[in-house]
Amino acid sequence: MNEPGTPLLEVDDLAVHFKVGRKRWLRALDGVSLSFGANTTFAVIGESGSGKSTLARAALNLLSPTRGEVRFQGSDVRRLARSDRRRMTAVFQNPHESLNPLMTIRESVAEPLGLNASLSRSTIDSMVEESLAQLGLGSHVLHRFPHQLSGGQKQRVAIARAIVTEPELIICDEAVSALDVSIQADILNIFNDLRASTGIANLFISHDLAVVKHVADHIAVLYLGKLMELGPTRDVASRPRHPYTRALLESQPLALPGRRRRERRTLVSGEIPSPIDPPSGCRFRTRCPRAEDICATTEPALQVVDGVHVACHFADEERAA
Hints:
Blueprint: E1 9-20, E2 24-36, E3 41-45, H1 52-59, E4 67-72, E5 75-76, H2 82-85, E6 88-91, H3 95-98, H4 105-110, H5 121-134, H6 151-163, E7 169-173, H7 181-198, E8 201-206, H8 209-212, E9 218-223, E10 226-232, H9 233-238, H10 243-250, H11 293-297, E11 303-305, E12 308-310, H12 315-320
Parallel strand pairs: 3-8, 3-9, 6-7, 7-8
Antiparallel strand pairs: 1-2, 1-4, 4-5, 9-10, 10-12, 11-12
Helix pairs in contact: 5-6
């Protein structure tokens, strides 16, 4: 169990670099730090190539960091005992690929429990049925195969498999992006209901600020392996201090005809630069409408502005805007 006052998950100066060729390195993450406690939904957002999934995989100990550390309940994830590893599970993006097509739904959900030799067959069956019931799936799906279920049902099965070991943290790597919009809402409500009923915390990886702002307590914004902004959702989503966060917010479609849109929308243009050769200074400067000479020469440090951490030389001016 998590000791009082100890963060559930801590990411401390995490860097993950991949060697490309003989002398070049791809900097997927480059010095990211964040932490959150139990019964919390913490969202990490950013475009493709920002380092979100790399962060999720490092937290799951699926890859080793170049620098820094990830701690779960105060212990380095690389040194967790098997019993402690079951307290942290994952739900991945594509349910069509995360479920074994040759296994029945019962077998898929029960698979994590097979690592515990002390559980009897009847106990495992009971836990599987209980997990599926929490996701609104009856016993009639137990002997079906994944191809016999809809996309939304498959993702419910994936979530049931994640909660069957009674974890304290679920890492959701783009867990709704492959689903229809209406199904996305159902899955997000499921995560909220599970958190309310069981206290499970969530690390929610997404590229969509519109999705996470309805479920997350805190948001971290990544760009090209660097942390741009971090703070409570109500502040980051409603009053972004970083130009990149503002651009993500303004890129959301508006349910209004153009003639009725009064606000000025400044959208980011161009592609995200290569993480093999990132820009000097501020990594967002090549796409930032606010960039000045200092942005090319000096990397902005994270500063606190009204309780929100922002890595921008002009954070105070963005706040005023």
